[in-house]
Design goal:
Blueprint (H helix, E strand, L loop, with lengths): L18 H4 L2 H5 L1 H5 L3 H16 L5 E4 L8 H6 L3 E6 L2 H8 L8 E5 L12 E6 L8 H14 E10 L9 H6 L5 E8 L5 E8 L4
Parallel strand pairs: 1-2, 1-4, 2-3, 4-5
Antiparallel strand pairs: 5-7, 6-7
Amino acid sequence: MEESLMVYLPPANSSAGTGATKYTGAVAAGYDAKREQSPKWICEQRIIEQWIDEMPEGSVILDAPCGTGRFFPAYERNKHLVLGLDISPDMIAQAKAKITQPSQFKFGIGDVRQVPLEDKSVDWTINCRITRWLSPDDNVRMMKEMQRVARKGIILTARIAHHPHARAIGLFESALEDGWRLARNEIGYEMPYRIMCFERTANG
């Protein structure tokens, strides 16, 4: 069967376009400045950077979508090797500007449902601020794909309630294959927003 194109959902009550078309040009250039002082951003940054710091030095990470490269300094200080994948070339351009150690990074334009990597080719995947843009079915497909490529774990963010595009924790757990479990479920800047880590067990 021919693969369908991924459809990013539009923001609720907005005419700004879908996630696939919104983050270009000036919007991409101003992405960090608009968000980096918000409680949500600060909380995400603190928790996810802590988890990145806990990974063994030189871990291989798929950051998808990598956006503007907000976690790149954490990757560099830990000497992690990173594939930055995003659907927006303009966001990738912003991310590349943050790099001081280019040998640690590679980039691609692509779809989180169909990653151009071999099975178990990275240690971790980081999927930040993507779940609300995908339908429930596409979130399941993304989770399946991340489990395919990851040897150790998946880190993602999700609003789990009280939003038109909320994605319940049970949706992600329903996509888990044998040997995978929800290992961390941190409350973000508010109770309905979560930062989660799914890990592959020794028997997985």
